[in-house]
Known about the structure:
Chain A is an alpha/beta fold.
Amino acid sequence: MSAPPRRNLAQRLARLAANLVYRDIDLQRTPGIDLDGPILAVANHFGGLADAVLIIDALPRMPRIVARDVIWQVPVVGRLPATIGMIPVHRSADGGRASNDDMFRSAYEALGGDELVLIFPEGVTQDVPHMAQVRSGAARIALGARASGVAGLRILPIGIHYEDKAGFRTRALVQLGEPIDLDAWAADRGEVAGADDRTAVAALTQVIDTALRRAAPDFPDWASAQCLQAAAEVLLTDVAPQPPAAVQYGDLEVLAGRLNRAPQAAREPLVEVAGRYRQQVRQARTSDLRVAEAAGLVRAPVGGRSRWVFDLVVAVLLLPYALIGALVAALPLLAVIVASRWRTAPAVRATLVPGVALLTFLLEWGVFSWQSLRDGGWDTGTVAVLLFPFLVGSLFVVAERATVLRTRWRSRRSPAGERQASLAALRAELAERGWAAL
Amino acid sequence: MNDSPWASLTAAVVVVLVPMLVVWMIVVVDVLRQPRMSPARKALWILACSLVWPVQILYLLLRPQQGRIEREPVRTDAHAQLVTTVLEREAGLLDGADYRARLAALRPSPPPEPIR
């Protein structure tokens, strides 16, 4: 089913924003996942607007997003939610006393029309690396929709992971969990009533909570998250005799999440050893790959030296265009940098950055094209429309290649002697514990 | 400053023509990679974009939408194999024994001698 034009436009803009704000977006899912038919997607809510933008970019269909009604009350912006088919939910915490009957009815109708409905069942955004308690709203929508005749409904858990949720041009992961087949779940339980069946709502909420915590980041604290990522990097390096020069963020997060779910007796010593290893690697100004290479466990990365040269050549060739890009997009860049460093909660910045980036870059693109059209006619105007994204893209490519080259240069040292022996021994212990915990 | 026609031409080529050619190539590759577009339609878009450059803007506005899940190629590298094994285990598609067997197959046994 094709979405109405306004929702289609919103989908295009969200995908544009996702590619503008994030350098790399990984997508992880179990193979053969089927996303046809009515789906209730449930996602963790670490990043405000950024969460919705990433989910829209990942999914094949534009979701109907269930969101707090306070968004409808924001001047100007408040007109957008209704236009793109969002469904308002009233919360007593926001001072609302209205009934949510309309919200449930809209969600049932959408699911009855084989649409995809998205809800953030924690109900709040937060700045810790674990989820808040999952509320009962998603279970009530699912059970109510089933009772109202929606067949074949599945609940899709979606985990959103950020390298730096308030940053610009950072990395993110969208992890699709295994869908919960509601009919099969209800059949296993015996007879299940609708959204008013409190026992069924509580049981389904628990199932959703467990499934979502498997897909989403759920670390006790930031330090543990970083240590488990270090352990995950060691395991990934181990499985590739000639590894790539960089490990994908999504791969790291999936393995770190799995290690985090290991029994406490295995996880705690793993975190401790990983913490020591991470610290020693940083002190030696090297990388896990270098340590593994020096220990003879892996060969040099695929295309190691030629990759350096390639990155350098690309950066040099695109440099003139990147400089022009920096000039024509100076104002939007400045606006995004200010937004990403604004002194406010990271979750708020994660809403500000995609919004400001999309708005300012589109505005600048329009102004640049209009001025060129006015001053130079249709030919120049056409060139300006096509040239603006090329120049901005060149700027991003050059800046990111420069960062990669600088990182590689900083961690170029291969450890030797006693330091290498110490690192290799610690790495071997970490790998042993990591494989056992996996 | 050199005001010769050659200097202007060089500047035009470097600043405008080269980027426009790159954009045109990106558009052509994008058209060719569209999975649900018929060959005749692809040929028409490429012809139109090549002959009338503003059509490229039209194409970029109207190009079929795809979610990341549809447009990302399936990876088969060693890292992806390990991650897929973990995801399949978490989804309940692998039992404990199969999972351990898959991990053992992926994990290199400590090499008897370092690779040189």
